[in-house]
Design brief:
CATH topology of the largest domain: Dipeptide-binding Protein, domain 3
Radius of gyration: 24 Å
Structural class: alpha+beta
Helix content: 25-40%
CATH superfamily of the largest domain: Dipeptide-binding Protein, Domain 3
Number of domains: 3
Strand content: 15-25%
CATH class of the largest domain: Alpha Beta
Largest sheet: 7 strands, mixed
Shape: globular
Number of helices: 14
């Protein structure tokens, strides 16, 4: 019902919204666009939105909908739905704009069943699914009854699922696709730019080191050790050497384009002497042994550079490169005397990253990342403030920097290549991988 923009603001599409910020009786009210229909002809109205939200609440899949009072969802009129909440959470509206706000036709579900619906989309969008082959392709044709009159401008959209990176590139270069998600691969984007393709980018977050600070026996639980390692990293040189013009050395996790970015944080600049001095003060004059855990799609050049920088101050870091499933296990089960080399997304609102990864009480994911003394207080302030307050978000950033909850290395972008005659995809303007397929068109 909403489009999530990269700067964290929300663009109403199928619904305008009103917020009830009353701390005693918080709520969200949706005023829907009239005359919209699902692909099967079912009306899109308040009754359908209520039904969809009830399904989401009952599924217990998403935390954001758990704050809605299911038995008090109220149809004000055919196109207005009021949703009382148990407690205000400003992450709810961004969640509605992402995958927690998808609406489907109740008629299609009742007629065909849930198994059929898992592979057949019946929504209100600009394209109607015509074919789906698992791990191969998804094809959709133009919706002649799309609610935005005159759109979309192209007749068909097809997603091609290709796992091998070289095959992806060959397919794109041969004209077999007009949009190529490079997966953030700066080298590939640079090569395609040199061939004349358009490159669309938006800063997505920071690649960071997550140390096991909650383990008192780990050297990483000592703040001076964490500070020493950050001083030991020549971030700008790494970004220049391996980022092909798309990376920037990071002083904090939110990039300069994000609301949570703090201008006064200039970072811990590369200083080997300072790093060695801090290690000595921390009680490790001769360094120590540790591990760097990374997923197998990580840039090996960066990992080797990190090893080298740490070795220069006496820290001997071995590499543990694992597959995606193993990395999820490490994140969930914990790790000792080591750091995780992972990306943290901070495109806009800092809330999704905080809420998903670092809630005050962590029983699973990242449970051995210690909280700063103010973490729970700040978390509550950010989560319950009615509107997105930049000042509070920046308080969080400053707190992370001071406590050094994670060590930022470089800011990275999302990168897409497109054919030269394709316009208005919305890639880079919307959050994540969302795009405006209804606005996309070809020039001659």
């Amino acid at each position: 019902m909403l489009n999530p923009l990269a700067d964290s603001t929300l663009l109403p599409k199928l619904a305008a919204f009103e917020m009830g910020y009353d701390t005693v009786n918080p709520s969200q009210t949706f005023k829907l666009v009239k005359g919209v229909k699902f692909h099967d002809g079912t009306d899109f109205n308040a009754s359908v939105v209520k039904w969809s939200l009830e399904k989401l609440i009952d599924s217990k899949m998403f935390a954001s909908v758990s704050y809605f009072k299911r038995d008090q969802l109220t149809i004000v009129d055919e196109y207005t739905l009021k949703c009382p909440m148990t407690e205000w959470r400003n992450s709810n509206m961004p969640a509605r704009a992402m995958n927690e706000g998808y609406m489907v036709s109740p008629t299609a579900l009742e007629k065909n069943g849930v198994d059929w619906m898992r592979t057949h989309m019946v929504g209100t969008g600009p394209f109607i699914q015509t074919d789906y082959q698992r791990d191969v392709s998804l094809t959709a044709k133009r919706n002649p009854n799309y609610w935005q009159q005159g759109k979309p401008y192209v007749d068909e959209v097809q997603y091609l699922y290709v796992t091998d990176a070289l095959t992806q590139q060959a397919l794109f270069k041969s004209g077999g696709a007009e949009i190529y998600d490079t997966g953030g691969n700066a080298m590939v984007a640079s090569q395609l730019a040199a061939l004349g393709y358009k490159i669309l980018s938006v800063m997505a977050g920071a690649q960071v080191l997550l140390p096991d600070t909650a383990n008192a026996n780990s050297p990483w639980s000592n703040l001076k050790v964490r500070q020493a390692v950050e001083y030991a990293l020549d971030k700008d040189s790494m970004a220049k050497a391996f980022g092909y013009g798309y990376w920037q050395g990071a002083t904090q996790a939110p990039s300069p384009q994000a609301p949570a970015y703090v201008k006064t944080i200039t970072g811990r600049k590369y200083d080997v002497a300072k790093a060695k001095s801090l290690l000595t003060e921390a009680g490790f004059p001769n360094g120590f042994k540790t591990k760097i855990y990374a997923q197998d799609n990580s840039d090996r050049n960066v990992l080797i550079a990190l090893q080298s920088y740490m070795k220069a101050i006496g820290i001997e870091a071995s590499l543990e490169v694992v597959q995606a499933a193993a990395m999820v296990g490490i994140q969930s089960n914990g790790w000792e005397n080591g750091v995780l080399f992972i990306p943290l997304g901070f495109e806009g609102n800092i809330i999704p990253t905080m809420g998903f990864n670092f809630p005050p009480v962590r029983t699973g994911r990242y449970r051995n990342i210690a909280n700063s003394p103010r973490w729970e207080e700040l978390y509550r302030k950010v989560a319950t403030t009615p509107t997105l307050e930049v000042a509070i978000e920046q308080e969080v950033t400053q707190d992370v920097y001071d406590f050094l909850m994670w060590i930022p290395i470089y800011w990275y972008p999302r990168l897409w290549a497109t054919s030269t005659n394709l316009e208005d995809t919305g890639l880079g303007k919307l959050a994540g991988d969302f795009w405006t397929m209804y606005d996309a068109y070809y020039t001659k």
